[in-house]
C-alpha cells in the first residue's frame, strides 16, 4: 500500500506509485525480452511458495481429527471440489488441479497485496490477462478435444431464421472472444481501483495531519479502515468470481448446453 | 450494487474493445480502411449487450436458486 520513496517526489503522495514494476535482479534480455527478476516476480514466487508450504503443512499429518492447519487445507479443497461438482459435475474433477491452483494463486496474490509495503501482482492487467488467456485456451482445447469440429455448433444459435445465422455467428464469435478480456479486466480493475482508493485516503490522512489539521484527518482514517475491510472481502470475492467463471466456461465446453 | 454495475460496464466495454480490435486488424490485413472497423465495432456493441443480458439471466437463475435455499450461484457480489 504505502511506497517508501514517494515522500521524496515533488507532488507528495503518488497513488499510482505502488503499481510500479522495477527490476530487483537485472538479467540479460533473451530474444529481445527483458527477463529481469522484478518485484512482481518476487511476489508471485512468494505466493507460490506460501501456497506450497501451506498445502504441504496442511497435508503432512493427516489426523482423523484434523488440526487447525489441516482443517484449513481441507476446507480449501472442499470449497473448490464442491464448486466443480455443482457447476460441471463429476467429469469436471479431471480439471481440479488446474482450477484449484488458479484459485489459490489469485487468492494468495490478492491477499498478499493487502500487506503494507507489498506489491499486488493482480493489479497488473498483463498478469490477469495471462491467467484469463490460459483459461480461454484450455476451454477452447477441451471443447475441440471433446466434440471435435462439432464444438463450432456453440456459435450457431438454434431456432433462428437462416438469413440471420451468419450475422449471429459473428456476434457469438465476438462474444466468445470477449471472455478473456472481461475476465481479466474484472480482476485487474477491482484490484487496481481498490488499492488506488486506499492510497488516496491514506494520502489524505498524511496531508491533513502534516498541515496541522490532525482532528480533520480522523474522517479519512476511519474511511480507510472500513475500506481495508472491504478490500479484504473483494480480494476473496474476485478470486471466487474468477474461478467460478472458469468452471462455467469449462462446463459449457464439456456439455455444450447454451 | 456497485459490483453489478461494474460487471455490465466491463462486459460492454469488452465487447466494443474486442470488436474494434478485430475490425482494425482485419482492415490492416485486407487494406479496406474503415469498413471492417465500423461493422465489427457495431457487432461488438451487440455482443456486449448480449453478454450483459446473459449475465442478468445467470444472476436471476442463481437468485432463484438461493431463494430455494440450495446451491450458491456465480454472483454473490452485493
Question: In words, what does this structure look like?
Answer:
- The complex is a heterodimer of chains A (about 260) and B (about 80).
- Chain A is built from 6 helices and 2 strands.
- By secondary structure, chain A is an all-alpha fold.
- Chain A is globular and about 70 Å long.
- Mean pLDDT of chain A is about 85; it is low at about 1-10.
- Chain B has one domain (about 1-65).
- Helices cover about 80% and strands about 0% of the residues of chain B.
- Chain B has helices spanning about 1-30, 35-65.
- In chain B, helix 1 runs antiparallel to helix 2.
- Chain B is elongated, with a radius of gyration of 17 Å.
- The N and C termini of chain B lie close together (about 5 Å).
- The model of chain B has no long low-confidence stretch (mean pLDDT about 80).
- Classes of the chains: A mainly alpha (about 260), B mainly alpha (about 80).
- Chains A and B meet through helix 5 and helix 6 of A and helix 1 and helix 2 of B.
Short description:
The complex is a heterodimer of chains A (258) and B (78). With 258 residues, chain A is an all-alpha fold. Chain A is built from 6 helices and 2 strands.
Which features would summarize this protein structure in a list?
heterodimer; A: 258 residues; mainly alpha; two-stranded antiparallel sheet; 6 helices; 2 strands; 64% helix; disordered N terminus; B: 78 residues
How do the helices and strands line up, and which of them pair or pack?
The complex is a heterodimer of chains A (about 260) and B (about 80).
Chain A: E1 23-25, E2 37-38, H1 39-60, H2 68-87, H3 96-112, H4 125-147, H5 165-210, H6 218-255
Helix pairs in contact in A: 1-2, 1-3, 2-3, 3-6, 4-5, 4-6, 5-6
Chain B: H1 2-30, H2 35-67
Amino acid at each position: 500500500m504505502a511506497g517508501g520513496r514517494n515522500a521524496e517526489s515533488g507532488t507528495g503522495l503518488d497513488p499510482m506509485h505502488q503499481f510500479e514494476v522495477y527490476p530487483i535482479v537485472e538479467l540479460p534480455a533473451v530474444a529481445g525480452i527483458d527477463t529481469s527478476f522484478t518485484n512482481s516476480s518476487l511476489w508471485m514466487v512468494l505466493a507460490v511458495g506460501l501456497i506450497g508450504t501451506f498445502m504441504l503443512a496442511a497435508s503432512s499429518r493427516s489426523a482423523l481429527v484434523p488440526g487447525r492447519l489441516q482443517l484449513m487445507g481441507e476446507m480449501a479443497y472442499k470449497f473448490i471440489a464442491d464448486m466443480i461438482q455443482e457447476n460441471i459435475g463429476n467429469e469436471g474433477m479431471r480439471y481440479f488441479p488446474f482450477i484449484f491452483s488458479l484459485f489459490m494463486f489469485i487468492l494468495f496474490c490478492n491477499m498478499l497485496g493487502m500487506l503494507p509495503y507489498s506489491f499486488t501482482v493482480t493489479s497488473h492487467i498483463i498478469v490477469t490477462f495471462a491467467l484469463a488467456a490460459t483459461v480461454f485456451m484450455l476451454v477452447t482445447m477441451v471443447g475441440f478435444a471433446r466434440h471435435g469440429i462439432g464444438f463450432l455448433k456453440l456459435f450457431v444459435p438454434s431456432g433462428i431464421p437462416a438469413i440471420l445465422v451468419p450475422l449471429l455467428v459473428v456476434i457469438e464469435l465476438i462474444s466468445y472472444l470477449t471472455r478473456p478480456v472481461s475476465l481479466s479486466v474484472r480482476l485487474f480493475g477491482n484490484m487496481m481501483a481498490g488499492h488506488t482508493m486506499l492510497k488516496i485516503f491514506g494520502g489524505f490522512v498524511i496531508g491533513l495531519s502534516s498541515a496541522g489539521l490532525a482532528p480533520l484527518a480522523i474522517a479519512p482514517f476511519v474511511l480507510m479502515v472500513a475500506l481495508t475491510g472491504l478490500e479484504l472481502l473483494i480480494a476473496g470475492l474476485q478470486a471466487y468470481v474468477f474461478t467460478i467463471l472458469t468452471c462455467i466456461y469449462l462446463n459449457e465446453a464439456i456439455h455444450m448446453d447454451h | 450494487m456497485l459490483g453489478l454495475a461494474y460487471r455490465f460496464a466491463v462486459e460492454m466495454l469488452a465487447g466494443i474493445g474486442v470488436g474494434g480490435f478485430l475490425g482494425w486488424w482485419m482492415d490492416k490485413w485486407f487494406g479496406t480502411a474503415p469498413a471492417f472497423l465500423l461493422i465489427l465495432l457495431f457487432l461488438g456493441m451487440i455482443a456486449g449487450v448480449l453478454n450483459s443480458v446473459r449475465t442478468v439471466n445467470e444472476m436471476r437463475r442463481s437468485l432463484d436458486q438461493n431463494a430455494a435455499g440450495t446451491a450458491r450461484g456465480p454472483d454473490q457480489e452485493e
